[in-house]
Write the structure tokens for this entry.
Amino acid sequence: MDLILACLTDKIKAEFLRFSFYQKGSIPMPLVTTTEMFKKAYDGGYAVGAFNVNNMEIVQGITEACQEQHAPVVLQVSKGARAYANHTYLVKMVEADVIECPDIPIALHLDHGPDFETCKACIDGGFSSVMIDCSSRPFDENVEETKKVVEYAHAHGVVVEAELGTLAGVEDDVKVSAEDSSYTHPEEVEEFVTRTGCDSLAIAIGTSHGAYKFTPEQCTRNADGVLVPPPLRFDVLEEVSKRLPGFPIVLHGSSSVPREFVDKINKFGGKMPDAIGIPEEELRHAAQLSVCKINIDSDIRLAITASIREHFAEHPDHFDPRQYLKPARQAVKDMVTHKLINVLGCNGKA
Ligand code: G3H
Ligand code: 13P
Ligand code: ZN
């Protein structure tokens, strides 16, 4: 491998290394696009987990779980993550992952790319997949910007996720109220996909971003007094899938906001009243249909926060970050392992 690299010009070398990281002695699976992952997920009736990464412990917790469970994974980076951790640090951590987890396909994806320039920066900067999110703009503008990104991305071997319909919640400090959110109109999807050439489509069927997806007033209570949110609009998903047979659908805002994390946060000094997520059974059902990618970020934040709050309460004398970040990383790993097996169904599918 070193001999091959020595013979290449710098430009070709950079291209060669872009999606193919190597290690002395063994050649790990390179960073991949989502094309093959989604095809297998669609045919196999499961979904790939797309987890947001912001620091080393999160990256390690996710990929240790995926490597152990032999699961494909999408590591996704938002505009906010790039601002927080720096593009280069994030890319290099994922490159390290490709080396450390040689048995699983890993895609590096831009989450909610707001415009062509951000997508271009990520395409040029080593990502294998980008999302262009113009879902809050008028249909034709969404088509035009998405198409522009698709042309550039495809010319560079990168795939593109686009979005139709608007989710409620907070993403990159943009807050969309429940009233301003809107379900995807199935009658628009064929024209959108044909005109843009996008590779996957995020749709709005009632999920939303963040840890407060529903107000208690929107929910009913089950026999045990637990709040049950309104069901997802599977009729919209089915209508979209009928119009786009074989096409990979993406669900954003798919954290379940597990009770155990919220209770632990509240028990150890936090204040997260009325945090409510998407029931896991509904996500499992979506994964069996045309949904090939399920986005999870808030559950990672909750797992870490619960773990650190508990740690500080029980060890007030600790001040070495490794003392509390190690169990926090383990909490991410445990949570992701649970999702892979019980929600996404992608364990053993690498
Ligand atoms: O969709 C939003 C993701 O959870 C990313 O959140 O923009 O705060 O990084 P962020
Ligand atoms: P959650 O806030 O439900 O984790 O959604 C994350 C997401 O959609 C990232 O794009
Ligand atoms: Zn999202």
Observations:
- The radius of gyration is 20 Å.
- The pocket of 1,3-dihydroxyacetonephosphate (ligand 2) is lined by residues 52, 111-112, 209-210, 252-255, 295-299 (CB under 6 Å).
